[in-house]
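Example record

The entry below shows one chain as it appears in the dataset: sequence first, then structure tokens.
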Amino acid sequence: MDRRASYGPIYASCMNEIEQILSSTSTFQFFPDFSGKKDSLSRLKGVYHSFAAKVHPDKNKAPRAAEAFQKLVEFYETAAKALEKGEWAPPKQKVTVK
């Protein structure tokens, strides 16, 4: 039996997002490149909120959800500051939100 199934369908569907966040080594690897795009900060917020809704520890009781949420918050804060200062570094790998 898949270990994800033991947490129920909602938690199981979010395990991919948790693993995706935790396996990312940097902000710029995790978030797509928003530099130079109109409304880049609002687009960044949209991606952040999509992931946050899935991994927030109040809604997701899967193991490591709290750790993934904290890392997501750190990534977001770093990316938002970089966008505001115009210091975005291109990511090595893009992530898509399902």
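Notes for this example: The longest helix spans residues 65-85. The CA atoms of residues 27 and 94 lie 11 Å apart.
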